[in-house]
Specification:
six-stranded antiparallel β-sheet, 31% strand, single chain, 23% helix, alpha+beta, 10 strands
Length: 274
């Protein structure tokens, strides 16, 4: 989901006529904002999934991931150059009606970090205002990556033989739910192929959750998810006696639960050789 609400920046007063510069072909404003009056787009870039370094309210750097839009605006010839605070305040005021605003600033506002949530999408906005003759705008809409690569049966087999277990990240559930989602099919097919390729292999199917919520609820959820996976594999021809579901909840994390990235790594399925 992307943010679709258009927020209009307060126009700069302009006392004299000036020549408007042309936007770089193919570039346009992000749907979240219009631009400061008197600027044109010098260049732009978009990435469907990228990481962006931001500073939180305590000045601590963190990395956020999602859809990234980068735009460089250049002041039209003859236009008065605004101050850093004027540009930053425009963006801050534009986000206030949506409940957003400035999170942190460094170097007297030369780097300004803002955040807003709209339609369930959290967006970080980074303004590079070291020179307002040409300022940079980055907008990252947080979201998960569309997984295009999944491990195959051969890779699962190698890991199990080497370590006795393997983590599977291609099996998906809605938050708080135990029903296996349709997009899990590629990973389920590879697990079924793994079992078909080794008739003696028996597995514990272990469900893991992140640390959000109570221990008790996560233990129940992980057990229910493990049972759903076993049912899905049995439906794909794996003998039920070769699989045993087990919920581990949040008790065996592989990363910190303090970040979105860490929680994503902790939400996994592990196949453990019996």
């Amino acid at each position: 989901m992307t943010i679709r609400t258009l927020v209009t920046l307060v126009a700069l007063a302009s006392g004299a006529a000036a020549a408007a510069g042309a936007d770089q072909p193919g570039c346009k404003d992000h749907p979240l904002f219009t631009r400061m009056t008197g600027y044109h787009i010098y260049r732009c870039e978009q990435a469907p999934f990228e990481a962006l370094a931001v500073l939180d309210a305590k000045g601590k750097e963190q990395s956020v991931e999602g859809r990234l839009t980068s735009i460089t605006y250049t002041l039209d010839e003859g236009r008065p150059q605004p101050s850093r605070i004027q540009v930053a305040r425009n963006y801050e005021n534009a986000l206030k009606p949506l409940g957003g605003g400035i999170v942190s600033q460094v170097d007297d506002g030369a780097m300004t970090y803002l955040r807003v949530t709209k339609d369930g999408v959290e967006a970080w906005v980074v303004l590079n205002l070291y020179n307002t003759q040409q300022y940079g705008l980055k907008i990252l809409e947080k979201g998960g990556m569309a997984q295009e690569v999944t491990a195959n049966a051969a890779a699962f087999s190698r890991d199990i033989k080497a370590t006795g277990h393997v983590a599977v990240y291609g099996i998906h559930f809605d938050t708080g739910k135990a029903d296996v989602k349709p997009e899990s099919e590629p990973a389920l097919k590879e697990v079924a192929a793994l079992m078909a390729g080794d008739a003696q292999l028996k597995l514990l199917v272990v469900g893991h959750t992140d640390g959000v919520g109570s221990l008790e609820s996560n233990m129940r959820l992980s057990q229910a998810r493990a049972e759903s996976i076993v049912k899905a594999l049995v439906a794909r021809g794996v003998a039920a006696g070769r699989l045993k579901p087990q919920g581990a909840g949040p008790i065996a994390p592989v990363a910190t639960n303090r970040t979105d990235e860490g929680r994503a790594k902790n939400r996994r399925v592990e196949l453990v050789e019996q």
